Amino acid sequence: MKIAVLSDGGWGTALALVLCGNGHEVRLWGPFPDYVAEMARTRKNPRFLAGVTLPDSLVLEADLAKAAEGCDILVLASPTQYMRGLLVKLRELRIPRETILVNVAKGIEIASLKRISEMVGELLGGARYAVLSGPSHAEEVSRGIPSAVVAAAADNAAAETVRDAFMNPVFRVYTSGDVVGVELGGALKNVLALAAGVCDGMGFGDNTKAALMTRGVVELSRLGKALGGRTETFFGLSGIGDLIVTCTSRHSRNRHVGEELGKGRTLAEIQTEMGMVVAEGVLTTESAFRLAQKAGVEVPIIAEVHAGLYEGKDPRQALRDLMTRQAKPELPSDLWS
User: Fold this and answer.
1) Which of 30, 169, 300, 324 could cross-link to 36 by cystine, CB 3.0-4.6 Å?
2) How confident is the model at residue 316 (pLDDT cuts 50, 70, 90)?
3) For residue range 202-219, what is the model confidence (pLDDT) as tens digits?
């Protein structure tokens, strides 16, 4: 197949390597021509995926029209807050209806509170759409470490096409029809990963993180269900699977941001140090908090992360407020109804 990966960030680059390894004709597009030329010359992407060599078969392209031309699949790998601009450009290119758009970003647009599928529907009408998500750090996928993800689409044929394009002996792909749940699982777990990082930065132990993650799954599924996802999706790869890896891994950008916050550093300092590397959970916290308010859903962990990021609340007070909430049953009946 002819496939273009649109964004040369770490995750986009890692997926381009998977697709090249599967024998597809792959182009990797980046928004900065000088850096694309540097990657083409050195066969490296040190800014976003250090230590990995780009195969000779991977075409580096700075012209979006050339990258997308004639492709069977376009992989939308731009960070969520930049996705609208990319979709506007694709609309101008009049992408054929049969082309499958595969979103691999994990976030919610802060201005509109829309998921990527909603943005695609708004800007590109009846485009064929799928989302690929799950516990899959670029640093590991790019090195062939066994991983499993899920491809979700309203059109089952599209989900199966995406599965077949990406799947290989070290990259297993399941399919789902729950686009909303898979998108929300990938986005909301980043907020919980910030909280897990704060716990690490404050020196708490395994008990604290286990409690946070377990209650986080309940919170994630409660909000996700209210927004249109299926409960069971949040206990799969794009829910609890992605939550586990993002809350515990040294590769997690969101956990890293939380850890530094827990050590007492400011968000501005941390983001300056990270440069162009994006931690989606920071802005997703604002989106998730507003969506929960709009839906009338109780999200105590997300609310405390929001208070810490945007209201200057001390993490220790946030923890105390979580721990001293009114006692209640572990699994409320509304989660399963």
Assistant:
1) 30
2) confident
3) 999 999 999 999 999 999
Give the chain's count of helices (H) and strands (E).
Answer: 15, 10
Q: Looking at the structure, do residues 15 and 78 belong to the same domain, yes or no?
A: yes
Which CATH number characterizes residue 25's domain?
A: 3.40.50.720
The active-site residue, picked from 2, 44, 66, 189, is 189
**Same domain as 43, residue 66:** yes
DSSP state of 168: B
Mark which of 130, 162, 177 sits at the end of a domain.
177
Q: Report how far residue 232's alpha carbon sits from residue 121's, in angstroms, rounded to the nearest whole number.
A: 25
**What count of other Cβ atoms lies within 10 Å of the Cβ of residue 266?**
11
The domain total for the chain is 2
Domain range holding 194?
A: 181-335
pTM of the model: 0.93
Structure-token match 């590991």, residue found = 140
Q: Which residues contact 73 (CB under 8 A, 6 or more apart)?
A: 1, 2, 3, 4, 99, 100, 101, 102, 161, 162, 165
Q: Is 209 designated active site?
A: no
